[in-house]
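Something for you to look into today, if you have time. Just paste the record in under my message, thanks.
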Amino acid sequence: MRLWRSAHRFDPDRSSARTFVYTLARRAAVDLWRRSSRSPVATAARPEKEDAVGGAAFDELVARLGVGEALAALTPLHREVLELQYHADLTQTQVAERLGIPLGTVKERGLVD
C-alpha cells in the first residue's frame, strides 16, 4: 500500500525502481520495529479498534509481508548490517566497529541498490 501511495514520488533520475522499493520497505521495517518496541502490549490489546479505523491492521500485515520478502532478497552481508542497525539499535559507526569493516562499507550495505 505504501508503494502505491508513494509512487508519485519516484524519480528515475535519482534512483532505480529497485532502490525506491527497498527504501520504502526499509522505512516500513523501521516504523514497525519502532511501533512494536514502544508498546507491544497496547498494540495487541486493541486490534478491533485498528480495523475499524480503516484497515490499519491489514496495512501493517501487508507491510510486514513486503518487508520480509525484501529482507529475504538481500545478501547476508546487507541483511546483517540492517539487522544490527535496527534490531540492536546500533549506529553505523558502532556496526562498523562490531563487524570490523570500514564505515563506508556499512553505509553502502545499508543503502541497498
